[in-house]
Structures are given as C-alpha cells and as structure tokens.
Amino acid sequence: MHTNDSSRWQHDHIFAQDRVRDGEKRTLVVVLITALMMVIEITAGLAYGSMALLADGLHMASHAAALGIAFVAYVVARRLAADERFSFGTGKLNSLAGFASAVLLLGFSLIMVTESTSRFINPVAISYDQALIVAVVGLVVNALSAWILAATPHHHDHHSHDHHHDHNLRAAYLHVIADALTSVLAIVALLAAKYYAVNWLDPFMGLVGAALVARWSYGLIRESAKVLLDRQASSTLVDAVRNSIERDSSDRVTDLHCWSIGHGIYAADLAVVSDEPQSADHYRSLISSDLGIVHATIEVHRCASH
C-alpha cells in the first residue's frame, strides 16, 4: 500500500469534542452567580452568627468550586480536542473534573460538621432578621441557577441531543437543587429559632447540610470513577451491541469490551467468530448509531470447525 493511500483508512479521534457545548455557557453564568452569592452568605453567616447560614454559604462555596472546575474542564477539553496525546479524545477530562470537585465536597462537609458541632457546644447570638433575608436571597439564586441549567436549548440541530447526555450539565443541575434544599433548611432553622426559641435547630441543620454534601460527593465519586477506570458500560448497552452483531446470523461475539470516553459516547473492542466472516467494516455498520459507539475496533475470525 502506498503511504498516500493509507490516509483513507484513518480518522480523527475528536468526536465533536472541539465545539462549544451548550452546557459550557450555562455553567459559566451559574458559576458567576453562585460565587457572588457564596461571598454574601459566608460573610452574613459570620456577621450574624448563623451556623445554618454559614453552612449554606460553605455549601454554595463547594458548588462554586465544583462548577468552576466543570467550566474549566469544558474549555480545556474543547481546546485540546485535536491533541493526538489523547487516544480517545478529551471526554474524560469532565469526569476527572467531577472527581476532583467531589473530593473538595468531602472537605467542605467535614468543615461544616466541625463548625456545627462547635456551635452546639458554644452557642452564639444570631441576628435572625438579617440572616433570614440573606437565606431567602440564596434560595432565589439557587432557583434561578436551576432554571438556567434546566432550560431546553432553543436550537434543534443534529447536536441538540447533547443536552441530555452532558453529564457535567446534569451534575451542575443536581448540585444547585441540593443547594436549594440546604437554603430551605437554613430558613426553617432560623424561623424555628426566632419564633419558638429552638436554637439547637440551627447547628443541627448545619449537620444536615453536611450530610447532603457528603452524600452528593459520594455519588459523584462513584460515577466519575467508573469512567476514569474504564468500567464496562451498562449491561443494556453491551447487550445491544452484541445483539446488533449476532442478530439474524451465525456470527458470534466472543469478546466484548465497551467503555465510556465522554458525554454519552463510547468505545468498543470486540472479537467476532463466523462461519462466513465479513469485513470489519460490515460488522461496524451493524452497530446502530443511536448506541453512541463512536470508535469500534473489531477483530474477525473464521470458525475453527470450517
């Protein structure tokens, strides 16, 4: 084969990761809003003596850090998409960012537990009215952020399905929903303490907020680790790939590996044994594009008995 002819058999490994995703723009807006509210809530929590409000501010700080990492991951993944050092593109940068933000979340949850426990032992005076105002504003900001992240894209091009497969965007949405819940807890604690003198509820809500952060962090660590460690894709996807090859034929898939390499996209490595072997391109064409398999390496063997 001539060297010039080999180019027709080659393909890039960008997999559309070089374009600006809808989630990138949304995340940037929410990062800016969240960072501003984070500063306000932490300052107010310290000034007015509310542990629930401080916990909400620290919780929002964890979100600002996580969302900031997500935004940086979007930009870096896009700019390095064509870099040949990344064998299957830069999709896993988002999972790496998620894992890093999850570790930060655990740190924030420990800080919240320590501070809340301290407030149980050494209660401080709380300026209820001012703290309530800031907590309500925080809840409104969280609701606005959730709306920004949940809004459906207006464009309907062939890339619009990315909104549903963007794990960073979904994680960011769940992040602000969890933060909104923490804001509600802070408001409830402040109202109970103000009108019913249930002062212990304020630091208790700080502990509840810490539990929420830790639980979210644990879930994110599990999901991002699956991608980073090339864990086998779901049995549903693996079975779908196998069935697409074996359907209506004597061909059999004897070895199949399928793993995530980015937002809703997968790589597959499989071996096919057949009485009448076809080309690798033939078997590759049998795999439905709806399955998200963007890179398939196929090894074909003739059955030993034939």
**What is the general shape?**
elongated
From the 3D structure, determine the CATH topology of the largest domain. Alpha-lytic protease prodomain-like
Radius of gyration: 25 Å
Number of strands: 3
- Which architecture of the largest domain per CATH? Up-down Bundle
Largest β-sheet summary: 3 strands, mixed
The H/E string reads: HHHHHHHHEEHE
Percent range of helical residues: 55-70%
**Low-pLDDT windows of residues:** 12-16, 154-164
Chain-averaged pLDDT = 78
Alpha-beta classification: mainly alpha
Our count of domains comes out at: 2
The side-by-side strand order for the widest beta sheet comes to 1-2-3
Task: Output the number of helix runs.
Answer: 9
Query: At the fourth CATH level, what is the homologous superfamily of the largest domain?
Result: Cation efflux protein transmembrane domain
Q: In what range is the share of β-strand residues?
A: 5-15%
CATH class membership of the largest domain: Mainly Alpha
Explain the layout of strands and helices.
Layout: H1 22-48, H2 51-79, H3 92-121, H4 128-150, H5 162-165, H6 167-196, H7 201-228, H8 235-246, E1 252-262, E2 265-274, H9 280-286, E3 293-302
Parallel strand pairs: 2-3
Antiparallel strand pairs: 1-2
Helix pairs in contact: 1-2, 1-4, 2-3, 2-6, 2-7, 3-7, 4-6, 6-7
Q: Could you give a quick summary of the protein structure above?
A:
With 306 residues, the chain is mainly α. 62% of the residues lie in helices and 10% in strands.
